[in-house]
Amino acid sequence: NMSSQSEPTNKGDNLLQTPEQVRTTVHFNMLDFKEDENPEEKARRHKEMELKPLYKELLYTIAHKMGKPSSNEIFTDDQLRRYIREAFTMTESEHDSLLEKVQSTEPPVYCLMATVKEAKGILGKDISGFSDPYCLLTIMEDEEESRTRQSRAKPLKSVVKDAVSHDKIYQTDIKKQTLNPIWNQTFILEFGHFAGASFHLEMWDKDEEVSLTQKLEEFTTNLNNLRRMIKEAKKEKGTDDFLGKVVIKLKELHCTEDNWYTLEPRTETYPNRGQCHLNLKFIHKGRDGTLSAGRSAYVNYCGILQQFVQAYISKQQSSAPWKGELCGEAQTLLELYATQNDLSPFLQDLAKWVAYSKLYQSLEVDSSVLLQQLTSIEYHWHQQELPYQQKQELGDSLHGFLQYGLCLVAKYRDIFPPTPSATPKLHRLLRILVQICKTQAFQKLNPAQFDLHDEVTDAMQYSSHYFYIRKDLSEIGSALSRLIGEVQEDIKHNKDVWNRVFVSAVQVDVFTVTYKRFDSLIAKEMRETLSLMEDQMEQKLANSLFPVYLSLQAIYKDKAFLQKRGVLELSNFHEGFREALPYWLNQAFSTTQDRVERAVQVDQLQPLQTGVVPIKHSSSAVDLVACIQPICQLWEQLSWPDPEEAFMLMVKITEDVCKIVVNYCKILKERVRVLSKNSDHGSAINMLCVVVNDLEHLRTVLTRLPTQLNWAGLRDRTHDVIGESQFKNTLPSQLQQAQSILGREIRSALDTLGKKLNTDIETHVRNMSTRRRIPSKSTEDAAAPLMPLLVLLTPLWNNSVKIIHQVANQHQLQEGLMVFSQRLLYTLQCLEQCFHAEGNGLPLNKLHSDEYKALKSHLTHHSLNSQQLVEKYLEGKVFEQKAYSGEKYGAVTLLASYRTSDQRLRIDVLNAVNLLPMDSNGLSDPFVHLCLEPYHIFPEVEPRCTQIKNCDLNPLFDEAFEFLVSLEQCQAHSACLVITVLDHDTLRSDDFEGEAFLSLRSIPGVAKESKGDELSLQPNNVPAQIRLPLMHPKPNNNNILRLLESRKGDREAQAFAKKRRQREKQSQEKKMQ
């Protein structure tokens, strides 16, 4: 990586971060403030953007709280409001203002989430001694209940059915013939007034209308139930039996209840009617989404928890570690907020782990707090599935804490000195790291091999290596620069002057002798000096080394004049300057940035020249081109020899140029704002026109950048190490991103210009409307000034397409690309309709430009999810297999069939022929590996392997394998059998002979079944003998794999792409390129 702040690329690099750097990376903040921002401004912004939305959420929670908290301590609304005002450090005026806003918001819909889990010991109402129970649920308020009592002279069993409208009654399923029914059904019951409302559950036995004949049969077969049958006969046909009821006042409930409730009778008959298990929770529906700018309840819960913890710790006078305690008000508010927003206990514990683990990195937290949260997460992991986003957050948090802990371990000499108080802290930290690695959550979310023992061992080695203190090396760099400069001058004199004298006089090539001697001396001096500077690099030292590099480069170029070159020790001299390279780039970038800012500060935004050949842009645009030139010259000066590193260097230089251009847009906008304050209307419009011209000039500058930096030459140099697609997808995308920003700024300037021209447009329109008595030709003259404005429609459409294309490429490596692409595709369609305007706008032939077609194809492709992409890839391989001719890498013969009777796919591996010799003896030890793909269709099916045939290029296997798979799985479009032939090696990994892809839909039994149900009567199908030529994949030749690789958060996609890339590395096609 050529950036000045390189990202860690392996586990060793991760350990090179200091605790301060890690703390900066994962610090307990919710906003990413600018480092140079005023602390007071940071605090103000934090309060406005983070604390006040959370504060309003809590005020809303208090105003609409329902149910009693689980703690014994009860707090009034005023107590809770006083607490949050103190915890969030709000002034009285801020509190009153926010409270007024909350009081003006719409109240939520009050709901009771009732889960009817099960019942036990209920009455048996049927002749069989069982019942067919079901439950009716509703919420009745005092008025409804009193009205029901007054309307009846005699209490009836049914209250819910007759007292409440049918749309407010919820019914569970009917469970047939049981006294211990299990439902596990959840209903959300809305209600208006909390104080006088009550929850009603009635359990009934469902009775169906039965014929007389059936009654007589039951009578003759079961005389013991005579009494029950007589009672049944007295009932009306189809009348349900009452089993019991549960009535609870809502004001008596806690926020969350999970209890067994006794089923009460309507009369004294059968008082023991069993129990019903209910889970009751008060939640909100339709909660005002403007309180916290639409953020999710989970994110708000994390922020509230963070603020409460910080407030609690700040009030503590003791220096002892925090042990996870919070005051009663905080616990009550967290419980109310989580309940009202229906946050599961798993999400609450996840929020606590994330908050406490981050807090550990800034304050002293007792390790038992983290261990407790890890235990809770491990318990919930087996009970409940996390949403995808929170699952990723948990994985990142566990991995991030591991890296932070390893960083502390690497600095253990400084952070944990050998004292009685410090060493136990180190021990507890290691315990936490061990516990994280043991959790199922970490093992599932971080499937890559992570050996804590090896990681700690590496941290120890790092700690020992950097234990010694280094001295300032800037003087050494300056001395080395002077030495190399003198050597360079001496070599030049030998080549240009002294060599001719010695050759002509004594036939001695003094230049070659001297050069080779200096080559050895300089190489040794460079190794010794640069070894002292290793890992001590800083800007001043790097600046002193740049002249050294240029001098060495000049010396190395003189090797062309040697008579006998041989191997030079300076051949790879550039490797010693890798550490200084980012600093050189940073110096060039910062210097250019300062020059650009000064150029804009003196720019008056006037055209440089008018006349025969006008120059419509201003001075700063010209200066910008001159300022960028040194960065481009740096590329030429470096002439970095390593092709792969040169490509990364070009990526960084292109990125810096784009950053300078984007920053120029920002400061140019500020400049036009300052100059327009005291300018008249016409001057302001002229300045805006100049700004648009400046930005268009920049667009042409960026267009010439590939030629200026000689991308074509770099492409030729990197052809063998950088794939064509990687090259095109990296450098051009950077330019496209910068050009998209330019397009956006041009559009913004045009929009501002249009607003300022509104007065002029209105004048022209008014002139046209008053020309009633003037010939039509004059009217056309009046409309003429408006025509240039309408011309903007076509460039606006083209610019919109470019912007969408640039945005699509800009986000191609981020998570959520599929949904993002779907939205962009929808946006493009909406824009097309808008610009076409049902035939009144731009014609379709102008709208459907080449760039539009390419963009639409790109977005359609990227809208597929990872599983669809895998299926598309496999379908392509099956198609490639069918079109593949010849047996360049051999072939394999199979017998394949599918039996629907027992759902078994049978594959007989008969033989393989003409295999490549992979061993030194000119033979191979082949075996065949069978695997059903894709994995998401066959997740439970294990791969199979034949026996190994030693020293045979035409092996006879004759082995049968059966796979237990359903017909539906086999008939999936992408379902295929991947046949891989490998050469077995004992001491090394097996060599790749070739692979073949067989669509399962083409196998007898699968294909016939898909044609109609009548064919399913055939128990067996005649196996088909299939001969498949073996193929080798072509490296870097598939866009789907690149797209799957870009989805870093999708582990299944990463695993599939990694497996296919491994096959490409083993491919013989790679060697032929």
From TrEMBL:
Entry protein name: Unc-13 homolog D (C. elegans)
Disordered, as annotated region: 1045-1073
Leader sequence residues: none
PROSITE patterns tied to this protein: C2 (PS50004), MHD1 (PS51258), MHD2 (PS51259)
GO (cellular component) term, any one: exocytic vesicle
Major subcellular location class: cytoplasm
InterPro entries: C2_dom, C2_domain_sf, MUN_dom, Munc13_1, Munc13_dom-2, UNC-13_domain
Span of domain MHD1: 546-668
Keyword Signal: no
Superkingdom of this protein's organism: Eukaryota
All copies of domain MHD2, residue ranges: 763-873
Swiss-Prot/TrEMBL GO biological process terms: exocytosis
CDD domains, A to Z: C2A_Munc13-like (cd08676), C2B_Munc13-like (cd04009)
